[in-house]
Every structure is written in structure tokens, then in C-alpha cells.
Amino acid sequence: MARRRKGDKVDGWLVVDKPQGASSAKAVAIVKRTFNAQKVGHGGTLDPMATGILPIGLGEATKTMPYIVDASKEYDFTVKWGVATDSADAEGEIIHSGGLTPEKSAVEEVLGSFTGTIEQVPPAHSAIKVDGKRAYALARAGETVELKARSVEIQSLTLKSHNADAGESHFSVCCGKGTYVRSLGRDIAEKLGTYGHLTALRRTRVGPFALKDAISLEKLEDLGHSARASDLLRPVTTALDDIPALAVTALEAADIKLGRSIQQSEAKQGLCYLMDGDTPVAIAEVTGEMVRPLRVFNM
Fold it and tell me: Of 121, 157, 177, 178, which residue is 20 to 30 A from 128 by alpha carbon distance?
């Protein structure tokens, strides 16, 4: 007999505005406690220094997590010129100083070099595993960490303001999966012949989730385990906005839930999600006239 999970069956997405200093794991723990939910996970780690959107999936929404992890993301960030740190942000140790603050025109001129597909070396203080250990753990232990460059996609990069007196610039970026904004700030400075590190980082969008959808952890805790808190949940299928929905009958849904393929002559080829009325049934793949379930929802 399967062991019953502790907590309530709660399904949906919650968009949290994570405060500075809190870990992503702490945010998940607060959400889990607030909803007394059986299963909770987040759609992409935010560094403790960073603020902004942390999408948190509850229950069956966790099955759509890969679509949020792979979604494009938008950030606002501030680069302090003239100083480099070992973590590429304000929490690290200073490793270089004395660099100059670039002119605004020079900053604008190099931004084109950082759009499209670029090669980027992640910061040593990152969660990437090296020989089974997290890079940040090795770096904190004083070990030299050498990470390989990887291809990332930068859809847009804009200089929002430049303050020469303060020695800093404020940017916004829209980027693909796996982009390290700390590395981006470091590399822009390097391209300009100076040093730089991030002093602020705020995630403003993740796929379909925007800041207008978000609630602070403080407000969430004030609501507690109440109907008002449940009203904040977005549908499980919100994460699937980029793939088409396909309606199925109750009989077809029953077959799908048993792992069986069904036949649909008019279905569009490729990925889709199946709906029985207002109830999500599964994520599926259409090949020819056959619809094969990939991930079934228990709703």
C-alpha cells in the first residue's frame, strides 16, 4: 500500500517576490507551510542577494516545472565599475580594484557584443557541479575552480541609466536558460577594459509570470493558511502557455490516465496539453493521428 503524503493536496502556481537575503529554499519552505501542501518546488533558483520573481509550483504544477525552468527570463541589474569580486557580486571578496568608470557612450557601444548567442563562463560561486561537488563549495574552501564556457542566448540588453559620479550603470536583460547575469556584468566590464561586479539583481519576469502577479513572502505569511491565500494560485496549465491545448472527451481522458494513446485526426503535430473541460489531463505528444501521454495529471 502506497504511503500517504503529509499535508493537503494543493495544485497550482504561486508567484513569490523574493526579498534580498532569503534563499530560494527558504521561500519554498514558507509556501509549503502556508498552504500545508504535500509537494512544492521552485522554477529556477535566485541567489540570496537577488530579489524578484520566484515561481513556485504546488502539487501537480510541479509536473510542468521544466517548462518554467526553460522559459526566457528578464532581469534588472546594476554594475559597479572599477572593482571585481570573486563571486562577481557584492557578496564576494574584492580581487581587483582601481579600474575606471567607462563613458556612457562606450557602454552603449559594447552592448551589441552581448546579444544573440554568446559564450559565457559561469562564476566560480555558482551551483554548477564539478566532480560531484558544487562550484561555490569548492570556491569557499579556497580551491581554484575552472568552469567551461557555455552558449547562452541574450534576446535583448539595454542600458537604462548611467551614473558616472556613483561609478555605476543600470541595465535590463532578457535572456534564455542558463544565463548568469553576474557573469554578464563581469564580462561587459572586461570588454570595456575595466572591472565590474553586480550590486543589485532583480528578476522581473519568468516565462508567463510577471512582477504584477507576485506576492511578497511577508504578505503571504500574514495571510496564513486561508482561502485568501488559495485565491493567489494560478492554474497548473499557466506554465504551458507556449504549447497548444487539445480538448478530449471523458472517455478519452480515462484512457490517457491509464497511459494509453488515443486517436485524433485533426490534432496539430508535436507537444500539447490535454483538457477534459476545465480539468488538465496530461502533457502529450501528437505523431500522425496518435496522441501519446507524456505526463499525466492526477486532478
Answer: 157
| Multiple choice CATH, 243-296, 3.30.870.10, 3.40.50.300, 2.30.130.10, 2.40.30.110 | 2.30.130.10
Q: Per-residue pLDDT tens for 92-103?
A: 999 999 999 999
Give me the CATH code for the 12-69+209-238 domain, please: 3.30.2350.10
Residue 1: pLDDT over 50? no
The CATH architecture of the domain made up of 73-206 is: 2-Layer Sandwich (3.30)
Catalytic residue among 11, 17, 47, 86: 47
Instruction: Tell me the whole-structure pTM to 2 decimals.
Output: 0.91
70 is catalytic: no
Region 263-290: mean pLDDT is 94
> pLDDT for 15-68, tens place per residue?
999 999 988 899 999 999 999 999 999 988 888 889 999 999 999 999 999 999
Reduced 3-state DSSP string for the chain:
CCCCCCCECCCEEEEEEECCCCCHHHHHHHHHHHHCECCEEECCCCCCCCEEEEEEEEHHHHHHHHHHHCCCEEEEEEEEECEEECCCECCCCEEEECCCCCCHHHHHHHHHHHCEEEEECCCCCCCCEECCEEHHHHHHCCCCCCCCCEEEEEEEEEEEEEECCCCEEEEEEEECCCCCHHHHHHHHHHHCCCCEEEEEEEEEEECCEEHHHCEEHHHHHHHCCCHHHHCCCECHHHHHCCCCEEECCHHHHHHHHCCCCEECCCCCCEEEEEEECCEEEEEEEEECCEEEEEEECCC
